[in-house]
Amino acid sequence: MHKFIITLFILSTCIQQQLFSQELKSEFIFDMELELSAPQMVGKVLPGTRVIYPATGGTVKGKVNGKVLPGGGEWGIVADSLTFKMDVRATIQTDDGALIYITYQGYLFADAKTNAVIGAGKGHTLSPSDYYFRSNPVFETSSPKYAWLNRTVAIGVGRLTDVGKVAYRIYAIK
Questions:
Q1: What per-residue confidence (pLDDT) applies to 47?
Q2: Distance CA 157, CA 132 (A)
Q3: 116 Cβ neighbours under 8 A, 6+ residues apart
Q4: Burial label, 63 (beta-carbon count in 10 A; 0-12, 13-18, 19+)
Q5: What is this structure's pTM?
Q6: How many beta carbons lie within 10 A of that of residue 84, not counting itself?
């Protein structure tokens, strides 16, 4: 019986160590800034108010460097007075000519006072700690050099940088 209890204790310790080794870790991939055109207000639709922000360009700097090509955009929904649900699609052209398709969803959430500042076009005057702005980028590329992105789970931490611009720091989840 004594050996059984010791074996059970050792097994329990091993399981606990395995569980703790599953802690979430991240690694910086790149910073991305998007330049957006004036919004196209489609208006009230079933899930909320549809707002489209065409992307006109942008930059990418980090483990991936390049530019965001015109033609993508944000097809978001104002879900309620405090929540904007993102739906973004864009193409990154790397400095060495590869194309990477990026799509992501996420949320920009802020209290009523902060949302009033954002709605007035002055979101860039706020601290990113004043709002919750997170996304989950997914990548597609045929480039062997960047193929690792095809199987990377990522999180983007967003901030409002200037009128007509948003920026994200993109992290790989390890």
A1: 87
A2: 9
A3: none
A4: middle
A5: 0.86
A6: 22
Q: From the CB of residue 95, how many other CB atoms can be counted at a distance below 10 Å?
A: 11
Which token pair is 103? 């799509």
pLDDT digits (tens, 9 = 90+) for 47-93: 899 999 999 999 999 999 999 999 999 999 999 999 999 999 999 99
Residue 134, C-beta contacts closer than 8 angstroms, at least 6 positions apart? 106, 107, 155, 156, 157, 158
Q: What number of residues does the chain have?
A: 174
Q: What is the DSSP string of the chain?
A: -HHHHHHHHHHHHHHHHHHHTT---EEEEEEEEEEEPPPEEEEEETTEEEEEEEEEEEEEEESS-EEEPTT-EEEEEEEETTEEEEEEEEEEEETTS-EEEEEEEEEEE--HHHHHHHHTT-GGGS-GGGSEEEE--EEE---STTGGGGG--EEEEEEEEETTEEEEEEEEE-
Supply the Cα-derived Rg of the chain in whole angstroms.
21
Phi/psi region, residue 106 (left: phi>0; alpha: psi -120 to 50; beta: rest), is left
Q: Are 146 and 166 in contact (CB under 8 A)?
A: no
**For residue 22, what are its two tokens?**
């599953």
CA-based nearest residue to 32, from 12, 5, 61, 9: 61
